[in-house]
Amino acid sequence: MPDGRHVLDAILNERLGLDQASIGSGLVPRATRARMRATGLVEPAAYAELVARSEAELQALIDEVVVPESWFFRDVLPFAFLHGLAREGWTARPAREPLRVLSLPCAGGEEPFSIAVTLDEAGLGPGRSCIDAVDVSARRLEHARLGLYSLNALRGVGPDRVARWFRIRGENFEILQPVRDRVQFHLGNVLDAALLADVPKYDVIFCRNLLIYLARDARARAEANLERLLAPDGVVVIGHADTLGASAAGRAFVLAAARGAFAYRRRKPGEIPPPPLELALPAPPPSRPAAWPRQRSRASPAGRRPAPSRRRPAPRPSRLRIRGPCSNRRWSTRTRGGTAKRWPAASARPVARGLRRRSTP
Ligand SMILES: C[S@@+](CC[C@H](N)C(=O)[O-])C[C@H]1O[C@@H](n2cnc3c(N)ncnc32)[C@H](O)[C@@H]1O
Predict the structure, then answer these.
(1) DSSP code of 183?
(2) Where would I find the CheR-type methyltransferase domain in this sequence (predicted)?
(3) Domain span at residue 29?
């Protein structure tokens, strides 16, 4: 009988495609021990058997294994980029179809809610844009739907925005209901070839701080999905430590915005191929104030390439179901303009400097 640890590794590799070098060798054993304690099982083989037959336990293990860290307006510049794109491409063109944005992965909602605030500030109300948000962790999605955050999650937010978009709830901050209403959350897997298969394509996909954790073949599958989900003149925004280029789909993207936003568009026919995107750009300076406690990150240094790994079987189909206004429009009815070329970075406010907790009206 195969060793329980190997069975669990195989299951997690199939579902998440994690790169051991990026996540660290202790993460999965730690997560497994925590779940074994929670389920009262002492034998790894018995626990592996439970995970193999119970989707609920596999989900609980996934919740334990994923790297969940996120915060509002993380890295600032991607949101400044989105603000400029929304204003030039949509606010200035009122007859255009609504702007469609996907946050994948969305963690606890910090990123898609930042996107919602950005679009509102760019003059795009709910009727002119829609935001889908997907994560593989059911626990993170529960947190997102709750909409409650610690001060730590607001370290990228200026005081004006805190006052405008949050209200204090005990020790925490609650994102206001109109912002919450703009985001539709879904359980889903970036490796799933059927992910969001029945919805219109997205004009902007934020896929930040996930590719860094994936083994090369998993990254290739994720890139193929990003390419499939993106509108013809759409833009993919990745994190500063992420890289594209593990697949032909990934290599077909070129940098679309000024340094710092890490926004990529499809290469146009006849356009000179760029240098390999595997050569990651340097990380931008840290955006958090020095006085705040540093969070430990499990991400490896920028530009580090995951070790090649063997091809894994396709992931199990996700249980994703899409409903609501973001999904009931036909892709074929869309009208599209050209891609904007300049990205004003005017919307970024000073980051969290001088932030004090205060009551909101
Ligand atoms: C570090 S957070 C990044 C969140 C956000 N994009 C950001 O940049 O702040 C990584 C998230 O990826 C999610 N995740 C991990 N593997 C995934 C997969 N295969 N499909 C979808 N989400 C995944 C985790 O649950 C976690 O919430």
Answers:
(1) E
(2) 11-269
(3) 4-65
221-252 pLDDT, tens digit each: 999 999 999 999 999 999 999 999 999 999 99
| Predicted local confidence at residue 273, as pLDDT | 62
Pocket test for ligand 1, best of 210, 213, 236, 298 (most atoms within 8 A of CB): 210
Number of H helices, E strands in the chain: 12, 10
* Consecutive H or E run containing 134: strand 129-135
- Rounded to two decimals, the pTM is 0.79
Pocket of ligand 1 (CB under 6 A): 16, 66-70, 74, 105, 107, 111, 135-137, 140, 189-191, 208-210, 239
CA distance linking residue 50 with residue 147, whole number of Å: 32
Domain boundary among 65, 86, 117: 65
**Are residues 108 and 67 in contact, defined by beta-carbon separation less than 8 angstroms?**
no
Nearest-CA residue for ligand 1 atom 9 is 70
Pocket probe for ligand 1: among 12, 23, 135, the residue whose CB has the most ligand atoms within 8 Å is 135
Report CA(235)–ligand 1 centroid distance (Å): 19
Of the pLDDT bands very low, low, confident and very high (cuts 50, 70, 90), residue 20 is: confident
Report yes or no on 353 lying in a domain. no
* 317 close to 183: Cβ distance less than 8 angstroms: no
At 271-288, the pLDDT tens digits run 876 555 444 444 554 444
Q: Check: CB of residue 271 under 8 Å from CB of residue 254.
A: yes
How sure is the predictor about 173, in pLDDT bands with cuts at 50, 70 and 90?
A: very high
Domains held by the chain: number: 2
**Can you give the CATH number for the domain in which 320 is found?**
3.40.50.150
